[in-house]
Specification:
Number of helices: 5
Largest sheet: 6 strands, antiparallel
Distance between the termini: 26 Å
Structural class: alpha+beta
Helix content: 10-25%
Strand content: 35-45%
Shape: globular
CATH architecture: Beta Barrel
Strand order of the largest sheet: 3-4-5-11-10-7
Oligomer: single chain
Number of domains: 1
CATH topology: OB fold (Dihydrolipoamide Acetyltransferase, E2P)
Length: 152
């Protein structure tokens, strides 16, 4: 397996993460510290356009998989940021709140959103896509996005 999957010139999906199939959020886990970093993937961002505004729940908030942990306002839509896993927010990226364009410019590095202490990583990670299943999921999503006119 490669380190990343290039979709188009500007779209890259790192293969070292877990992805929420529906909401295009990514998760990386530091199992020794029991922490999960969460952000938005490049494919989801391509459908949204440039982010203008981001809010995130406060440190200490307990969030549930499938529920909102913040909101966004982008060029093409406004909506909720949906948690890919359940847990307690340990940190939020204040730089992204001040400058939402960081998410578009560096979605997998400087543009992360929150760090969570997972409640049940083993169970919930099984509901995310990763590893060898990534290519088929990405291909399916690219086809769906093109059909909706969200990407070229």
């Amino acid at each position: 397996m490669t380190d990343k999957i290039d979709l188009q010139d500007e779209l890259t999906i790192p293969a070292d993460r877990f992805y929420d199939r529906e909401h295009h959020m990514w998760v990386t886990v530091n199992s020794t510290q029991r922490q999960a970093r969460v952000g938005m993937d490049a494919l989801g961002l391509s459908a949204l356009g440039d982010l203008a505004y981001v809010t995130l729940k406060n440190v200490g908030a307990v969030i549930q998989r499938g529920e909102s942990f913040g909101t966004l306002e982008a060029a093409k839509m406004t909506g909720d940021l949906i948690a890919p896993i359940s847990g307690t927010i340990l940190a939020r990226n204040e730089a992204v709140i001040k400058n939402p364009s960081l998410v578009n410019l560096s979605p997998y590095d400087d543009g992360w959103l929150v760090i969570i202490q997972p409640i049940d990583w083993k169970k919930e990670s099984a509901q995310l896509v990763s590893g060898n299943a990534l290519s088929a999921w990405i291909e399916s999503e690219m086809k769906r996005y093109r059909g909706q006119g969200w990407i070229d």
